[in-house]
Each structure stands twice: as structure tokens, then as C-alpha cells.
Amino acid sequence: MNSIPDDIELVERLQKGDVEAFDLIYEKYSGKLYAFGLKYLQSTAEAEELVQAVFLKIWENHKHIDKELSFKSYLFTITYNDICKLFRKRNYRQKFIDDTFYENSQASSETEDIIDYNSVLEQVQQIIDKLPERQKDIFLKSRQEGKSSKEIAEELSLSPGTVDNYISEALKFIRSRLHKEDLALFLFFSLFFF
N or C end of the chain: smaller count of CB under 10 Å? Predict the structure, then answer.
């Protein structure tokens, strides 16, 4: 097998939308980013999600990556920032759960009036159901079944880059249809799907 080209060449190709270059970058760095994430997050599922999120950002910003800067440093900076966001999200999620279910002595009746989780789940599902079939299938494998991009790619005979593109487009579609004024729906989706 040929050796992987250096980062400058890969970034130049990536800037032009070269999916093969994206896959080579994924092959080169995904394991290192996973190990880095696992060290801090202590969760294989969160480490896998972290890698997926980082590579989604790389693909979404591929035209604007500066080939003159260290690509490795760029990758690990994004990863580190995402780890910090995950730690904040963990705290927010726990606070949200605590505030909703434990601090209110009348939680059993009042909380149900404030946030009807069945209704929220139904609304989220209705948005997901509007995705194109292939996009929906890949999104659900990622978010509900907890599969990594690599696992989905192998299962569907696609490249990890293509899988990440499907997930990215699905998230954009879902975000565009979320009503931000519906705080319960938006908060639920933000906490449990991103």
C-alpha cells in the first residue's frame, strides 16, 4: 500500500473537495483523536462521537483550512475545544435533570405540564421522518444506534467521509426546522442529539 501523502498535500486536495484526501486524513488521524478524546472523556461512545464531530467540522470548513499552518495542531485544537464543550454539556445536562426532577418538590405534576417528553420526542421524530430515506437511515444509525462513521461506512459500503456528509446535511436540515421558541424541544435536541 502507498504511504499517505504529507499534510500539506492532503490539505491542498481537501480544499478542492477531494473526498479521497478527506478519507486519508481520517485514516491518518482518527485513531489518535479517539485516543486523545478517550483519555479525557473516559467514554468510548463520547470519544467516537467526538471524532465524528471533529471530522464533520473539517469537511464543513475544508475550503478555508490554511495549509501553511500545522494541520495536526489545527485538528487537536478543534478536538480540545470540543472536549471542553462536552464537559460543559455534561454539567448543563446534569443541572437540567436536577432542576427538573429533584429540586421541585411538586415535580411529578408541574414538570409534566412544563415539559411533556412524549410530545417532545414525537416532534423530534416528525422532523427526522422528513429526512430523505438514505440520510435518515444513516442519521439514525449514528445518533440512535450509536454507531461510528466507520461502522456505518462498512455496513453500507460507503466511505467514512460520505457518511459524515450525510450526517452533516441531516443535522443542518433538522436545525433549520427546529422552532427555537419551543425551548423544551430545542433544549432536548441540543442535549441529546448533538
Answer: N
How many CA atoms, within 13 angstroms, populate the side-chain half-sphere of residue 142? 30
| Domains in the chain: ranges and CATH | 1-107 (1.10.1740.10), 115-194 (1.10.10.10)
pLDDT at position 115: 47
Tell me 17's DSSP state: T
**What is the structure's pLDDT at 12?**
92
Calculate helix-pair angle for 117-129, 183-193, nearest 10 degrees: 70
What's the pTM? 0.48
Please state, in angstroms and rounded to a whole number, the distance separating the CA atoms of residues 180 and 15: 33
Q: What is the grid cell recorded at 128? A: 427526522
- Going by C-alpha positions, the residue among 48, 62, 38, 53 that lies closest to residue 85 is 53
